[in-house]
Amino acid sequence: MIPLSSLNISFASIMPEMLLTGLALLVLVLDLFIREEKSVLGYVSVIGLIALIPVSARTIEAKASFGGMVMADEFAAYFNVIFIIAAIFTILISMDYLKKMNVRRGEYYHIILFSTVGMMVMASANDLVTLYVGLELMAMSFYILVAYRIASARSVEGGLKYFVLGALSSGILLYGISFTYGASGSTNLSEIARQLGGFQNPFLILGIVLITVGFGFKVAAFPFHVWTPDVYEGAPTPVTALLSIGSKAASFAAFMRVFMVAFPAFHAQWGEILWMLSAATMIFGSVVAIAQKNIVRMLAYSSIAHAGIIMMGLLVYNDLGAGGVLYYLLVYAFMNMGAFAIVALFRNDRIGESISDYSGLASRRPVLSFLMALFLLSLAGIPPTGGFAAKFFVFSAAIDARYYWLAAIGVVTTAISLFFYAKVIFYMYMREPDGEAVMPESGVLYNVVLLVTAFGTVFLGIYPTPFIDMAIKAVKPLLM
Amino acid sequence: MPFTYLPVLVMIGLATAMAIGALFMSFIFRPRNPYREKLSPWECGMEPVGEANRGHFRVHFFIIAILFIVFDVETLFLFPWATILTEKGLSMFVFVEMIIFIAVLALGLIYAWVKGALEWV
Amino acid sequence: MEQLFFYIFAITAVVAAILVVSMRNAIHSAFFLIVCLLQVAAIFVLLRSPFLAAVQVFIYVGAVMVLFLFAVLVLDVGKEAFREHMHSQSVPSLVMVAALLVIMGFMMFSGKLTVPPGAYNEAALAKNTEVIGRAVYTKFVFPFEVVSLLLLIALIGAVVLVMRERGKGADRNKPEDI
């Protein structure tokens, strides 16, 4: 018998999730009444999300609530802000994009909001059951969003691939969760750590391996990345942006919380697995990206390489490394979103996909080309952008913790990655325009997104200290 | 405790025996004179074209099936809910949470209705 | 006695599962899957989990199989598609299954797979459904409410991906719009 008072039911701790669910349901109902002008739903969603930022950034006393299911600490708040920022940008660039692609259905907006709820649930999950349910909510929304342009065969193919592999990875994750439950007798993360102590059990090792594989799929780490290029290419470009930022950040949030809270005693074991995964992912992502001719596929492989670097921060397992993960994901949200916004602006059904379509863009659109170059240089990690600060932070944390080889691999792959990012810049500035591909006018919404992301990318590079301090403070509770 | 399920097992056994028995009996007693026209599928007196098992199903059935699954899951959640509904101190809390659960799903039903998923055009 | 029934159910389940993957006609496979799932439900009863058995029968045998059959019929998977059912993937998959079996068997017989006993004994499990209800509706109330959103999004997804928008949005793919 569990008395209700021991559950610690605190609605304040799930306030962001509750309000966002309310917003999503409101947009769903509005969708039923507004027949013609669906972009109204987009504006309602954006206004609601902006109003939600202060609520989700505020943290209350960090204490597990709802029977230990939810932990609304600063860690969750930091991630919630990343998710909301990513969702706002995505919706802003979607409104024009959907018109261009002639998709007039209104479900898009509330599905994005529901996926954001799923991400928030994942970031604040203190129990494997909550984590799994949040992950499924996020993944289910993305299956629909990727296949959203049902008239396009590529979109549907991408959706199907993502669905099959996503369902497989959820199954593997669930299998790992059940082994962990079998070994420890609990699904609560802190309870698992207490029950296990340092006791080794083949069941538990199996559970840890399977959970790593499941998360490896979600963050697109090397042997489990196969879905990434096709899905990124097929999905509507704003969805790709949200997939590469929100889904990755949420999976890393859950990854970190599970491994740091539940399995701290087994760092030696999972550290080795993650070392190999991280090194392989960095090398594979940046080497394969060189050969890509399609810009979305190139960005897909670049996002794989970034996942490897972020994993390095998780592997280091101290406040610098884990804080580095958070800071990296924040910077990544700005720079990657900016790059994808320009790709979404340029991309049409046939043109604007190949890197050679960017030839001579600088002479026609100097400002857009400059911004694209800025985002790509930031992704490559050139100072004074945010990408440099983030990479520097993660690499120095790795060197501090004596992961010299891994840091060396990271630096070398970063140098390799400069090749393919610079290729786009080279095309934009050095080549003559070939006439066919014409960049459409960027509307007000695109301009807002591009300016904010560019400002964020530069600002996070010049003045990173407060954000790094916040990130380090946010991971403190995980490291106890 | 599993012995309480003995009647279920007996019933399954009897039902299986009846089904197999009926088929077996008709196998023994039926008259046999097959010829080509009798064995061919009936197609308005024409020579049959293609195969009979290639039915063309409407995709619309799929939405009905998904709706069925969603509300089937909801029904299953009601069973354990009903067993603890009468418990003192818990009942109000448990009642309200199930109302929220059902309200969200009802919204989904209304959504499907307004979008015309329930219409058979 | 219970052991005997367990072996009956387990062997039937395995045989049915093998038939599922070796049948040429997808509809026959589906019917063998029903047999297999029913055996699993019976094993749940032997494991003192009548509620899970009910879930198995309701969700899997009832709803999921209906969906499966609909999918088979909608996609019109005839016999042709299954003609080459012993394709190139069957050898590696057989090797994998054999390897998994050997590893599991080795670990089980060498006594390496040990699990701490759970919190519930036979007496507590007599009221299995109540035990589950008390856990789901008190401790797991938050994930339970998230499940309602999950079901909602599944429903929305089905409508979005299957239904064509009526009215003005229906005439998409106009070339001048691209």
In short:
Chain A is 75% helix and 0% strand. Chain A is mainly alpha-helical and 480 residues long. Chain A is globular and about 65 Å long.
Q: What's the arrangement of secondary structure elements?
A:
The complex is a heterotrimer of chains A (480), B (121) and C (178).
Chain A: H1 15-33, H2 39-57, H3 74-100, H4 107-124, H5 128-146, H6 153-184, H7 189-196, H8 202-219, H9 228-234, H10 237-262, H11 267-290, H12 295-316, H13 319-346, H14 361-364, H15 366-380, H16 386-400, H17 404-430, H18 444-462, H19 465-475
Helix pairs in contact in A: 1-2, 1-4, 2-3, 3-4, 3-10, 3-13, 3-19, 4-5, 4-10, 5-6, 5-10, 6-7, 6-8, 6-9, 7-10, 8-10, 8-11, 9-10, 9-12, 10-12, 10-13, 11-12, 11-17, 12-13, 12-16, 12-17, 13-15, 13-16, 13-18, 13-19, 15-17, 16-17, 16-18
Chain B: H1 6-29, H2 36-39, H3 60-84, H4 91-114
Helix pairs in contact in B: 3-4
Chain C: H1 2-22, H2 26-46, H3 50-75, H4 90-109, H5 122-125, H6 128-139, H7 141-162
Task: Fill in the keyword field for this structure.
heterotrimer; B: 121 residues; mainly alpha; Methane Monooxygenase Hydroxylase, Chain G, domain 1; 4 helices; 64% helix; 0% strand; C: 178 residues; Four Helix Bundle (Hemerythrin (Met), subunit A); 2 domains; 7 helices; globular; disordered C terminus
**Tally of DSSP β-strands of chain B:** 0
Please identify, by name, the CATH architecture of chain B. Up-down Bundle
Distance between the termini of chain A: 30 Å
The number of helical elements of chain B comes to: 4
The biggest beta sheet of chain A is recorded as: none
Discrete helix count of chain A: 19
What would CATH call the homologous superfamily of chain B? NADH:ubiquinone/plastoquinone oxidoreductase, chain 3
Radius of gyration of chain B: 25 Å
- What shape does the CA trace of chain A take? globular
Q: Can you tell me the CATH class of chain B?
A: Mainly Alpha
Shape of chain B: flat
> How many angstroms does the end-to-end distance of chain B come to?
51 Å
Number of beta-strand segments of chain A? 0
